[in-house]
Design goal:
- The complex is a heterodimer.
- Chain A is mainly β.
- Chain A contains 3 helices and 21 strands.
- Chain A is 8% helix and 50% strand.
- In chain A, strand 4 and strand 5 form a beta hairpin.
- The longest helix of chain A is centred in the first third of the chain and has 19 residues.
- Helices cover 12% and strands 41% of the residues of chain B.
- By secondary structure, chain B is mostly beta strands.
- The chains are: A mainly beta, B mainly beta.
- Chains A and B meet through loops of A and strand 8 and strand 11 of B.
Chain lengths: 412, 221
């Protein structure tokens, strides 16, 4: 029962806050989300419980309801152009606590020009996910986002400033062209989870200052290359006092097509270490498309490839992942989504069994969501993965896992 | 007294009759046939009648035309006004809009909170005013500015112009999908109602609805 005490108290608070902050014309608005799920399947020990299993919730919580994504969002809009947003999550897992995932100031000047712009400053998700387009940056298709978007929510966060400049040839034009640019600090250790654990499917967004559990690798032992690594991993830490950035271009055609190309570089110094956190020099490119090719039908795809380097003569990995998803929505109430993805980490360094990062695999997800009323969605998701990974032993791990989830999501 | 009044009334009536027959204004019915077969498009077309005598159409009536914002759409989507009129934009939504236009006949922008109405926007030139909203960029409205009191949109494939003085005219029609208006010459004789056939070939343009969010999709997308 004590396990339920915190979430139940939080839900009570969410209900209370949202009821008092609903006054019309108020510059304040409150959103809250409660997610509850039951999982069942054939899974390995979760990475959150110290294993290598790719699911957030493993057999240990099987057949018992878990809260996933209990969230509170606050927005303050004093004018048509300016707003301030904050999002808090409670994570129901061993490392769980209340986490601040986003907090930013947004400015959208109202200029009657062919150029529009939007500026954000603070802590926020980079606009690279075409899948996680729901409130609270959740996927609106499946309860477990693709490995790419899982990773973006886990190890990446823009703590800096971003501008998006959009050009529309005319008021009646259906085409819009955007340029995205940002500079940020703090995200120096990004790349570590991807290397030491690999790609995973989950919907857990890391909060600022929050830590994630690391597996015990031979390279962490005394006298080994990464003996200074802290037991807990902190992705959003400033290690080298350098700024990183990203650049992107985007084309949108009416509501039918969105094509995006981005390049990200955290510009971390791989030779630095601060409080047990290394700088991981991580860069990647991504091509993404969201195409509504027919009424009710959507095709989404993201393809990301990049590299991460840590330490002097340390980790040197290339990574690559891609998914294709097909979704059909009927009567705005039923949605079926099919997603296939493949992922890999190519371990190019010479640390061998001390730091085995090589990984290759694929996953397939089928999800049916039903939205009987505007606030509530019920989903039935099934994910199967098949992957192999280098291990500290000469033989590779080759596992298959599957999980069926029944999830309920309520927004108020 | 009574006889005097009756006589006066009779004379007045006779005079009115004489004046009316001297400058018999005609009623014109324009029968529109759309070759594309799209009757919805036919109702979007603006038909106008322009006198070739510059003076004849100079009696501009200054009117206020209203284009509402409701459900994040402009209503009417396509409309026409006479040059010299003005337009007001009432916001009937429960949230703000930022209405603007880059178009030559009326360049403006107006921040409109819920239930607010813009000031009167004067329309001093002819042409097309394309209206948008900076906050909801699918919102679109077209206002066609004409320099004649005779203009309208088809109802049951017909546009009626009343009180048309006899003379040489140009019949014109316009639709947002057309690069410019199409015209033809027309002679209005001082006589009984006339039926004028007008053949067009126009396909409709759809007004984009507000995005329908489901599954808790974010509005910012």
């Amino acid at each position: 029962m004590s396990r339920l005490r915190i979430p139940v108290t939080l839900i009570g608070c969410l209900l209370f806050i949202s009821s008092i902050a609903r006054a019309e014309q108020s510059p304040w608005s409150v959103d809250a989300m409660v997610g509850l799920r039951f999982d069942s399947g054939d899974t390995r020990q979760s990475w959150l419980n110290g294993g290598l299993g790719k699911f957030r919730f493993d057999d240990s919580s099987e057949s018992t309801p878990v809260f996933d994504n209990l969230a509170l969002g606050l927005a303050y809009k004093p004018s048509l152009t300016t707003s301030v947003h904050a999002e808090l999550f409670y994570h129901d897992d061993p490392d769980g606590d209340v986490a601040l995932t986003q907090a930013f100031w947004q400015y959208k000047p109202l200029t009657s020009s062919r150029w529009r712009s939007r500026y954000r400053a603070g802590i926020f998700h980079a606009p690279f996910s075409l899948e996680n387009r729901g409130k609270f940056w959740v996927s609106t298709y499946t309860t477990r986002p693709s490995v790419i978007n899982s990773w973006l929510g886990e190890e990446l966060r823009t703590i800096g400033i971003e501008g998006i400049w959009t050009w529309r040839p005319s008021t009646q034009s259906s085409n819009k062209y955007s340029v995205i640019a940002a500079v940020f600090g703090f995200n120096d250790p990004a790349g570590s989870m991807l290397s030491w654990r690999g790609w995973v499917n989950h919907n857990r967004q890391t909060g600022v200052g929050e830590t994630l559990p690391l597996r015990d690798l031979p390279a962490f032992a005394d006298g080994q290359p990464f003996q200074q690594q802290a037991v807990e991993f902190e992705p959003f830490k400033e290690v080298d006092n350098r700024v990183g950035g990203y650049l992107g271009i985007e084309w949108r055609r009416s509501r039918s097509l969105r094509v995006q190309a981005v390049y990200y570089h955290n510009n971390a110094d791989p030779r630095t270490i601060e409080d047990g956190q290394y700088g991981w020099r991580t860069q990647f490119s991504q091509l993404a498309v969201h195409w509504r090719f027919a009424q009710q039908w959507e095709l989404l795809s993201q393809w990301m490839w990049g590299s991460t380097v840590m330490g002097k003569f340390g980790v040197d990995n290339d990574f690559d992942a891609a998914y294709v998803m097909l979704a059909k929505t009927l009567q705005r109430k039923h949605r079926l989504a099919l997603r296939a993805e493949r992922f890999s980490v190519d371990d190019k360094d010479y640390l061998g069994v001390l730091d085995p990062n090589d990984e290759e695999g694929w996953a397939a997800t089928v999800a049916y969501s039903f939205m009987p009323i505007k606030q509530l969605s019920l989903s039935l998701d099934y994910t199967h993965n098949d992957w192999s990974r280098a291990s500290a032993r000469p033989t590779r791990i080759a596992w298959e896992e599957s999980q069926l989830s029944l999830a309920l999501r309520y927004l108020f | 007294m009574e006889i005097k009044t009756a006589l006066y009334r009779l004379m007045k009536g006779a005079c009115a009759f004489a004046m009316a027959s001297a400058a018999q204004a005609a009623t014109l019915n324009i029968d529109i046939r759309n070759e594309s077969g799209d009757s919805f498009a036919t109702e979007q077309v603006i038909v106008s009648l322009h006198s070739n005598q510059a003076l004849a159409s100079s009696k501009a009536s200054k009117r206020v035309h209203r284009i509402e914002q409701t459900g994040s759409q402009f209503k009417p989507f396509i409309s026409a006004v006479q040059k010299g009129s003005s337009i007001k934009f009432p916001n009937r939504d429960r949230f703000a809009h930022h209405v603007y236009s880059f178009s030559e006949p009326a360049k403006f922008q107006s921040e409109l909170y819920s239930q607010q109405e813009s000031h009167e926007i004067e329309v001093a030139k002819t042409g097309v005013i394309v209206v948008g909203c900076n906050i909801h960029d699918w919102m679109l409205a077209y206002v066609y500015v004409v320099d004649t009191p005779h203009f309208g949109q088809a109802l049951n494939k017909q546009v009626t112009f009343e009180q048309v003085e006899p003379g040489a005219y140009t019949l014109s029609y316009w639709h947002p999908a057309m690069p410019g208006p199409m015209t033809s010459a027309l002679e209005v004789v001082d006589d009984a109602p006339q039926r004028i056939p007008l053949t067009i070939n126009v396909k409709r343009i759809e007004q984009l609805a507000a995005p329908s969010h489901s599954f808790h999709e974010d509005e910012d997308y």
